Here is the input.
Amino acid sequence: MVTQHRLLNLIFGLLLAFFATGSNADAGSEKVTSLNVVTSLSSSDPMYKGLMHFKQMVETGSKGSLSVNLFIGSQLGNDDDILEQAMAGAGIAVLVDGGRLSVYAHEMGILGAPYLVNNLAELQHLVGSDLFQQWNGSLQQNAGLRVLAFNWWQGARHLLTQQPVAQPEDLNGLRLRTISAPVWISTIEAMGASPTPLSWSEVYSALQQRVIDAGEAQLAAVWGARLYEVISHVTKTGHIQLISGLVTSDEWFNRLTAAEQDIIIHAATAAGKYATSQVLTAENDIEAKLAAAGVSISTPPLEPFLHATESVYQALGYSELRQQVCALLDEGNAQ
Here is the structure.
């Protein structure tokens, strides 16, 4: 059910998209098609650098027939709001993880499942596979959403707390912010905490005011949101490898010319690679800066966390799909 708040955001986004499109063709000028791209992250995050790269490639490659407008901090609504606007046909896109997309294509949720892959190379192999393209087809058919590229790796997710964490039992009773999607909620429950979904833009104040006790995020997001001011410990569990996709309206995409579609797809893929490289470059520096800011950083034995989260796959109906993914990754590792 759509809440009144989300309905207002949906209407606002559609109106904004309408007026952006309506003002695209000035008298005596060629038609320009606009795409609004939204992220919950800040302008200091490596993903934003990727989005800037995407904007430059699209506008240059199309020689100005396509225009990209970037919005940070969920300015046009949270990720779920933007997906609803895209489903309604608006010229809008959002950088979003597979967990949120599982509502529309169940298979997508496994991308946010705990300890699914061993490294970034395996993750990239998975999202570049024919198996993933089948999931993208389901998303288009079921929800009218289209993945432009799903290679935007944001980093491994770690625990953000006010006290040391050495094992899952240390999380018992903690209200821990996570993403509002079944796979994320189930993962945090399995680890022992009480999952508390909140928009990313609310996490700083919620930690500051003790509305929540803890959170979980990748290092770049921790630094970008200045969470080092309101937490004291980062425990490097790496429980989820956060990879996201640039997702837009299938209806809007199909209104483009074939040449424009190629430009958009190529730019999204290239920008995802660029953003990922920025994360890899920044992570060691960010960890050092967090430590200098007074945050204690530790890496616990991972086996207890692996064991605790094993139940997530069966609970969400991903056991068989996990076997398919593991077979795909084994083939990739053997090549």
